[in-house]
Automatic annotation (TrEMBL):
PANTHER family: TRNA DIMETHYLALLYLTRANSFERASE. It catalyses: adenosine(37) in tRNA + dimethylallyl diphosphate = N(6)-dimethylallyladenosine(37) in tRNA + diphosphate. Keywords: ATP-binding, Magnesium, Nucleotide-binding, Transferase, tRNA processing. InterPro entries: Dimethylallyltransferase, IPT, P-loop_NTPase. This is tRNA dimethylallyltransferase.
Length: 333
């Protein structure tokens, strides 16, 4: 194995398994069934679930489910902490050194960071706490708050190729790419072309792709359930603890809308905004998993996992587990 975590031969690479897909598509339900069959813990792959105290709005599984199957890579940092994809991959590989797990979640760039090495471009991706990067980030986050779309517009000016691969509403990815342009003093797409990422693992991805009309209904139902479960109180408690829109975690989907409600917006308008933005986010996730996540083996599942009966779920899990086990054992490429 080379120093950066990549091996010289594809056959020597470790094998990873993941369940991915849009929000509310039933990833956790299927993953638990698969983990039980494959005797694996679940490695959560969600950029909001890594924060302590952000529980209801990030749809963390309950204690009973964690008793059934151990879950790792959640509740890693406090809500005021900065946490990058690089931080995630380091934590993930520390776990993988002890044994395999089933990655589950909707944050595709976290999974990509685990499965592939950084390119030369990412060598400039210093920790978010680095003074120069922190100042750059604060400057552009302030501009984005003043003028929505400012970050992506600047990335388009500096590196049209990088901007074309990032949705205009994905401020986190656009800001990271913009920082890399700044750090390298040239378009980051050129740096990546000179030293592209390489595989550090072989990845099999179970990709949930339910029909959008059904998924939209599931999203609406989940949002309503989060409100009933106490999302407003959760956000109020976080604000009382000193966390607010200054912190990236509190600008996450669902949390920023409830902050607007606490600032005076009606709860009905806030919930409607959560539903609308979640539907948009689900479409961006589908695009990412279809076109940007590089997997060695992909199994697409179109059935609505969240609405399957227990018997139907078990049959689906049996079929997927058999193929997954063969891949992990090296019997399938």
């Amino acid at each position: 194995m080379s120093a950066d975590g990549a091996t010289d031969r594809a056959d020597d690479l470790p094998r990873l398994l993941a369940v991915v897909g849009p929000t509310a598509s039933g990833k956790s339900r299927l993953a638990v069934a698969l983990a039980e069959r494959l005797h694996l813990p679940i490695f959560c792959c969600d950029s909001v679930q890594i924060y302590r105290g952000l529980d209801i709005g990030s749809a963390k599984v309950d204690a009973a489910t964690r008793e059934r199957v151990p879950h790792f890579l959640l509740d890693l940092v406090d809500p005021d902490a900065e946490f990058s994809a690089g931080d995630y991959q380091e934590a993930a590989w520390q776990l993988l050194a002890r044994g395999p797990g089933l990655f589950t979640g909707g944050t595709g760039f976290y999974l990509r960071a685990v499965a592939r090495t950084y390119s030369g471009a990412e060598l400039a991706d210093v920790p978010a706490s680095d003074p120069r990067r922190a100042a750059f980030t604060a400057q552009w986050e302030a501009r984005e708050r003043e003028h929505a779309g400012a970050v992506h517009a600047e990335l388009q000016r500096r590196d049209p190729q990088a901007a074309a691969a990032i949705h205009p509403r994905n401020v986190v990815r656009a800001l990271r790419a913009l920082w890399l342009c700044e750090a390298h003093e040239r378009p980051v797409s050129l740096v990546r072309a000179e030293d592209p990422p390489r595989a550090r693992a072989r990845l099999a991805a179970v990709v949930l792709e339910p029909e959008f009309a059904a998924l939209d209904r599931a999203i609406d139902d989940r949002c309503d359930a989060m409100i009933r479960a106490g999302l407003v109180a959760e956000v109020s408690n976080l604000v009382a603890a000193g966390y607010d829109s200054r912190h990236r975690s509190m600008r996450s989907l669902g949390y920023r809308q409830i902050l607007d409600h606490l600032a005076g917006q009606s709860l009905g308008d806030a919930v409607a905004a959560i539903k609308q933005e979640t539907r948009r986010y689900a479409r961006r996730q589908r695009t990412y998993f279809r076109h940007q996540l590089t997997a060695d083996r992909t199994l697409a599942v179109s059935r609505p996992i969240w609405s399957l009966s227990q018997v139907e779920l078990e049959r689906e899990a049996d079929t997927i587990a058999a193929e997954a086990a063969a891949f992990l054992a090296g019997e399938l490429t």
